[in-house]
Design a protein that fits this description.
The structure holds two protein chains of two kinds. By secondary structure, chain A is an alpha+beta fold. Chain A contains nine helices and four strands. About 15% of the residues of chain A have low confidence. Classes of the chains: A alpha+beta, B mainly alpha.
Chain lengths: ~270, ~190
C-alpha cells in the first residue's frame, strides 16, 4: 500500500475515508450475496403454480445485510484485541528485566517525541524480529514487538522501530489495517467454518447413509471429522438433515442423498 | 445589495472566529508542550540523587565530578523563573546539569567493576531515557512553538493575532557554546 502524498492531516483523512469505504464495501458484498440469492430464488419460483411457495420478500438479503453490519461493527470494535490475541502477545505493564525496561522507556520517549499519548506495550513470544502497531486512534493504541526484535536490536535501533510504529498510530494507518485484518479474519472464519461443516457433515452423511445410525462411529473414523465434540454435533445435525435431503432430491432425479453427497464432497475437496 | 453585504460580513466574522480559536488552541498547546519539558526535568532531578548514591562509594577519588553533578542539580532545582526570561534561565541551568552528567557517565564507563554492579546499569538506562525524554520534549515544544509563531505571523491570521493576544513563543536553544561544537567522531573499533 502506498502512502498518500501530503501532510499528516491529509493522511489521517485518507485513512479515515479508506476505513469507511472498507466497511461499506464489506456490507455491500454481503448484501449483494443475499439479495442476489433472493433474486435467483424469485426467478426460480416465479413460474411455480399459484399454490406453491413464491419467494417475494427478500429475506436472505435483509438477514445477510444485518449480519454483515453486525460483523463489521464487532470487527471494528474488537479488532485490536483480536489482532493481539492472534499473535499471543502479552502486555508489559510492570517491566521485569532490563530489556523490558528499555522497551517501555523507548516507547515513552517516542510517544513524547510524536506528541501522542503513550500506547500500551506488548511483547510477542516469537524469535523472528518484527513489530506492529494496532488500535483505532492515538488515544487507544498498542505497540507490539517480538522477543526476537528485543534480542537483536540495540537501544537506538529499537528507537527507530518504535518511532516507525508510532508513525502508523499517528496517521491512523492502524485504524485501516486493523479493521481490514479483522474483517478478513471474520471472512476466513466464516469460509473455514462453512467448509468444515460442509465437508465433515457430508462425509458423515454419506457414510451414515450406507450404514444407518452409524454417524458417531463414522465421525470418529473420518479424517479430522471427529476431532471434537462440536464438529461431531454439527455433523450429526446435518446428517439428520441429510435424510431430508434424500427425500427432497430423489423425485427430481438428482439421485439419492448419498450420491448427491458424494458429488458435493468432490466439489468441496477440489473447489 | 444589502444581503450581499450581510453575507460578506458573516463570512468575515466566521473566518475571524475560526482564526482566533485556532490561535488560542496553538497557544495552549505551546504552553502544554512547555509543561511537558518541566515534567521530564523534574524526573531527571529526582533521579540524580539515586545515581550519585549508587556510584559514591566506588568513586571516592572522582569527588569533583560527583560534586559538580550535585551542584548543577541543586542549581537547576532552584530555578523558578517565569515570564520571558524563564526559558533562558531554565535552559542555562539544565544545560550545565547535562554537561556535568555526561562527564560523570564518561567517568563511570572507565570503571568496569562499577558498571558490573546491577543497579548502575539500570540507573544508566533510566538516565539515558530521561535525557532522551527531555530532548524529545524540547523538540516537541520547539515544533509546537514554531507552528504557533508561524501562524500568528502569516497573513491573514496576523490580523487577529492582536485580538488573541498572541506573542511569539521563545524556542529552546543551546546556550552553551561548547555544545554547538561539532563532536569528535571516533570510528576506531573498540
Amino acid at each position: 500500500m502506498t502512502s498518500p502524498p501530503g501532510n499528516l492531516f491529509q493522511q489521517q483523512e485518507a485513512n479515515r475515508r479508506r476505513t469507511t469505504w472498507l466497511v461499506i464495501g464489506f456490507v455491500l458484498f454481503f448484501a449483494w450475496l443475499g439479495f442476489g440469492g433472493d433474486f435467483i430464488f424469485w426467478l426460480a419460483t416465479s413460474d411455480a403454480p399459484p399454490a406453491q411457495y413464491h419467494h417475494v420478500f427478500p429475506w436472505f438479503g435483509l438477514i445477510l445485510t444485518v449480519i454483515a453490519i453486525g460483523i463489521a461493527r464487532y470487527a471494528y470494535r474488537t479488532g485490536p484485541e483480536k489482532v493481539l490475541w492472534a499473535t499471543g502477545a502479552r502486555e508489559v505493564i510492570d517491566p521485569q528485566n532490563d530489556a523490558e525496561r528499555q522497551l517501555t522507556n523507548v516507547v515513552d520517549e517516542m510517544a513524547i517525541a510524536a506528541g501522542v499519548p503513550r500506547p500500551r506495550v506488548w511483547i510477542v513470544p516469537d524469535d523472528d524480529p518484527n513489530a506492529f502497531a494496532t488500535g483505532h486512534d492515538p488515544k487507544d493504541s498498542h505497540v507490539a514487538v517480538t522477543r526476537g526484535l528485543l534480542a537483536i536490536c540495540n537501544r537506538d535501533e529499537l528507537q527507530g522501530v518504535i518511532g516507525h510504529e508510532l508513525g502508523h498510530v499517528k496517521n491512523l494507518d492502524v485504524r485501516l489495517m486493523t479493521t481490514l485484518a479483522a474483517l478478513v479474519g471474520a471472512l476466513l472464519l466464516i469460509r473455514d467454518g462453512m467448509g468444515r461443516t460442509m465437508r465433515g457433515g457430508l462425509r458423515l452423511g454419506r457414510q451414515a447413509g450406507t450404514r444407518p445410525g452409524g454417524a458417531a462411529q463414522a465421525g470418529e473414523r473420518g479424517e479430522g471429522g471427529g476431532r471434537d465434540q462440536g464438529v461431531r454435533d454439527v455433523a450429526d445435525f446435518l446428517n439428520r438433515g441429510g435424510g431430508r435431503l434424500q427425500l427432497l432430491s430423489a423425485p427430481q432425479g438428482l439421485g439419492s442423498g448419498t450420491e448427491l453427497a458424494d458429488r458435493l464432497i468432490d466439489a468441496a475437496r477440489d473447489p | 445589495m444589502g444581503w450581499v453585504l450581510l453575507i460578506l460580513i458573516a463570512v468575515v466574522v466566521l473566518w475571524m472566529v475560526g482564526a482566533y480559536n485556532g490561535l488560542i488552541a496553538l497557544k495552549n498547546q505551546t504552553v502544554n508542550a512547555f509543561k511537558q519539558i518541566d515534567v521530564q526535568l523534574k524526573r531527571r532531578h529526582d533521579l540524580i540523587p539515586n545515581l550519585v548514591n549508587a556510584v559514591k562509594g566506588a568513586m571516592d577519588f572522582e569527588k569533583s565530578t560527583l560534586e559538580a553533578v550535585i551542584q548543577a542539580r541543586n542549581q537547576a532545582v532552584k530555578v523558578n523563573a517565569s515570564g520571558p526570561e524563564a526559558i533562558k534561565q531554565i535552559s542555562q541551568a539544565e544545560n550545565a546539569l547535562s554537561g556535568a552528567l555526561s562527564r560523570l557517565m564518561v567517568v563511570v564507563e572507565q570503571y568496569p567493576q562499577l558498571k558490573a554492579t546491577g543497579n548502575i546499569g539500570q540507573l544508566q538506562e533510566e538516565l539515558t531515557s530521561t535525557e532522551n525524554k527531555v530532548s524529545f520534549a524540547r523538540q516537541l515544544y520547539n515544533d509546537t512553538a514554531t507552528e504557533y509563531n508561524t501562524k500568528q505571523q502569516q497573513f491573514p491570521t496576523t490580523l487577529v493575532a492582536g485580538l488573541a493576544k498572541a506573542q511569539p513563543a521563545d524556542l529552546w536553544e543551546i546556550e552553551d557554546q561548547g555544545e554547538r561544537a561539532v563532536p569528535k567522531v571516533d570510528l576506531s573499533s573498540r
